[in-house]
Amino acid sequence: MHRGGPPQRRGRSGADRLHLRARHRHTDQRLDRGAGGPPGVRRPAAAHQLHQVHARPHHGRGQRVRRDRLLQGAGARLPAAHGEPRRDRPRTGPRRGLRPRPRTGRAAPDRAEPRLRLRRQQRHHHPREVHVTTAAPVKPLTVVSAGVVSGAGYGLAPLARLLDGNTVPDRAGAPGEERGSDAAAGLDTAGPDTAGPDTAGLDTADYPPRPVRPVPGFRLADHLGRKGIKYLDRLTGLSLVACKQALEAAGPGLGGPELSRTGVVLATNTGSIAGYTDLLYETLTLDKPYLIHPGKFSNSVMNCSAGQMAIRHGLRGLNATVAGGRSASLYAFRHARMTMAVGSADRLLVGGSEELSAPVAWAWHHAGTLREQAAVGEGCAVFVVAANPSAEDRESALAELLACEVGYHNRAGSAGRAPGHGGLTNGLAAAITRALDRSGVRPEDVDTVSLGATHHTGLERIEERAVRLALGREPERVRVTEVLGETYSAGGAMQLAALLARWQGAPGGTPRIGLVTSVGHDGNAGALVVRGPN
Predict the structure, then answer these.
(1) CA distances from residue 281 to 2, 284, 357 in whole angstroms, order as listed
(2) Which range (48-57, 387-396, 516-525) has the least confidence?
(3) Residue 453: CA atoms inside 13 Å, Cβ hemisphere, count?
(4) Does residue 526 register a pLDDT over 80?
(5) CA neighbor of 185 nearest in space, from 160, 145, 214, 206
(6) What are the Beta-ketoacyl synthase C-terminal domain coordinates in residue numbering (predicted)?
(7) What tens digit of pLDDT does each residue of 136-175 get?
(8) What dihedral do alpha carbons 282, 320, 197, 245 form, nearest 10°?
(9) How far apart (Å, rounded) are the C-alpha atoms in residues 15 and 12?
């Protein structure tokens, strides 16, 4: 029996005695164990040993405040340790009613009290407080190639011509076709035995009185052949065509170990809305639910497009689908950067995809967030991004992706703060500033900004104000939404494609710096810094 130890119950193992279990990993750290003591048993500490843990509530998650790490005078404000007489404890702190003496020295950063104070400041942040943070620099990601399917056509060249105003987007489809019909909207009306099914959704002929920007004459069989496309929806078809273009532009096909280190990160909001409504309609109208074809169930999951891209091209790396509203594409770029930073992939196909259908058009029409004459579009943009590109990839690179900062910000502001603090304007401005700092780019070096909130009620002014607040001026603007329509979750990818299309026709010289911004009614906001080729 140990001297001064608590009584032990019979018939219980040492593991069940939680109050006697050792709190140290190694035996040489148990300062209060006497010689010859049984393992796992902790003797009561003497009054002069100050390594016990107090049980009072404290700030911090899972952090134990040890007495031997407290600042001078902080130990007197804690309750007495177990077995320590209260009257014998020295009182080092100031007495009640007396003013404490000012501290002359700076506490070490590994002490407990400064850490707790930092936790308190982070939780109760005041807008007037100045917090200095150091932004870690980022490693550029090389954009090797791009595949774009949009209302302008296929590739970056048609998009560049449309941005320059050389061509006018076809709002009503081919000549002679009535606006609002399936053919006018670019929807595939052929049966499943010819070129693919009609995946436009419920009541495809009844579009709202609003302009639409479909992909002109899109037929999946013309790009991928007839094999394996019978039950693919329109969203998956757009993604597969853009993926094929990007891989072909990147050079010779991948093989062997490269396939296991190549993945897909695709942005979409909810997947195929037309596929959901079609499946729901058949579930409610057919005689029995089991008469629905099982091939349509794969289109009801959000990651169907990303999975089909990997299956068709044999990509065995990371496969992720990112949903984040209008900022989903920037979230995808951010996810790709984090994946490559930890060494989980060497190459990634990153982008966003969105389809046009009657349910989507009616949803935008009734939501009231778009202006009356704002168009609704569709498309997909996929970019082959490499962390460690080869010499050939560097020579033919389209651009370099620098820092990408995204986050959620309360639009109305937090309670108790001044109006505007914590809102979307300051949140987007802070994201732009932090992205520039991490990229090593000065605000005056940005010469082009690709805006995404065009024709959105309220958001367009918020985005412009945030850009002026962060950059101090108004650089050249690129508004891809004016020519392609609202593409929602694929908007960020289309903005990057518009930036690259504009730079392709520009004369060579010093590298250009571009900025892609995104803001949504849901509170998401973000910014991506892009550096053009030499």
Answers:
(1) 77, 5, 15
(2) 48-57
(3) 29
(4) yes
(5) 214
(6) 426-500
(7) 889 999 999 999 999 999 999 999 999 988 765 444 333 3
(8) 170
(9) 8
Reduced to 3 states (helix: H, G, I; strand: E, B; else coil), residue 267 is: strand
CB 381 within 8 A of CB 297: no
User: Nearest Cα to 230, choosing from 200, 203, 194, 201?
Assistant: 194
Contact in structure between 533 and 511 (CB atoms under 8 Å): yes
pLDDT at 421 over 90: no
Place of tokens 């550029």: 140
Q: 243, 263, 262: which is closest to 154 by C-alpha? A: 243
pLDDT band at 259 (very low <50, low <70, confident <90, very high): confident
- What is the rounded distance in angstroms from the CA atom of residue 349 to the CA atom of residue 470? 30
449 DSSP β-pair partners: 477, 515
Residues, the chain, total?
534
The 3-state DSSP composition of the chain as helix, strand, coil percent (nearest 5) reads: 35, 15, 50
For 102, which DSSP code? P
Phi and psi at 295, nearest 5°, equal -65, -20
| In the block, residue with structure tokens 């195929």 | 272
Percent of the chain whose pLDDT exceeds 90: 49
Q: What is the pLDDT of residues 283-298, one digit of tens each?
A: 888 877 667 778 888 8
Three state DSSP letters for 105-139: CCCCCCCHHHHHHHHHHHHCCCCCCCCCCCCCCCC
Q: Which two tokens stand for residue 490?
A: 């694929």
Q: Are 194 and 188 in contact (CB under 8 A)?
A: no
Domains and CATH numbers, the chain: 141-165+201-532 (3.40.47.10)
Q: Which of 404, 379, 474 has the alpha carbon at shortest distance from 169? A: 379
Q: Are strands 476-479 and 448-451 parallel, antiparallel or unpaired?
A: parallel
Locus of tokens 């979409």: 268
Q: What token pair was written down for 146?
A: 């791009």
From CA 476, how far away is CA 497, in angstroms rounded?
Answer: 16
d(CA 487, CA 492): 9
CA distances from 124 to 299, 392, 425, 427 (A): 45, 51, 21, 18
DSSP string, 332-384: HHHHHHHHHHTTS-SEEEEEEEE---HHHHHHHHHH--B-TT--EE-EEEEEE
Q: Nearest-CA neighbor of 493 among 377, 354, 396, 375?
A: 354
What is the rounded distance in angstroms from the CA atom of residue 408 to the CA atom of residue 182? 38
SS3 sequence of 454-496:
CCECCHHHHHHHHHHHHHCCCCEEEECHHHHCECHHHHHHHHH
Q: Are 28 and 67 in contact (CB under 8 A)?
A: no
H/E stretch holding 160 reads helix 156-163
